[in-house]
Amino acid sequence: MQNSAEKEEFKGYLEKTGVIDALTKVLVGLYEESDKPSDALEFIKKHLGNSLGIDVDALKQENADLKAEVLALTQRVDDLSKKLEAANKQ
């Protein structure tokens, strides 16, 4: 078991890095919700990013867009590689 000095050091670390403030904001937001979410953990995950200035939904959309772009570019590379191969055979 950790001694009290280690606990205090860890608590200071959490305070210094803003973790306690961010968690407090999210938990207060959950407490103030008039319609409590069915999945409190999902609420915390979603809103923790928001309390840090991160738009989780925008990041998810950007990720999906980038995956689609990678797929399209991969297909383009395959198509161009086939055309180049065909041109080299002539």
TrEMBL record:
<dbReference type="GO" id="GO:0005634">
    <property type="term" value="C:nucleus"/>
</dbReference>
<comment type="similarity">
    <text>Belongs to the AMY1 family.</text>
</comment>
<protein>
    <recommendedName>
        <fullName>c-Myc-binding protein</fullName>
    </recommendedName>
</protein>
<dbReference type="GO" id="GO:0006355">
    <property type="term" value="P:regulation of DNA-templated transcription"/>
</dbReference>
<dbReference type="GO" id="GO:0003713">
    <property type="term" value="F:transcription coactivator activity"/>
</dbReference>
<keyword id="KW-0539">Nucleus</keyword>
<feature type="coiled-coil region">
    <location>
        <begin position="56"/>
        <end position="90"/>
    </location>
</feature>
<dbReference type="InterPro" id="IPR026060">
    <property type="entry name" value="AMY1"/>
</dbReference>
<keyword id="KW-0175">Coiled coil</keyword>
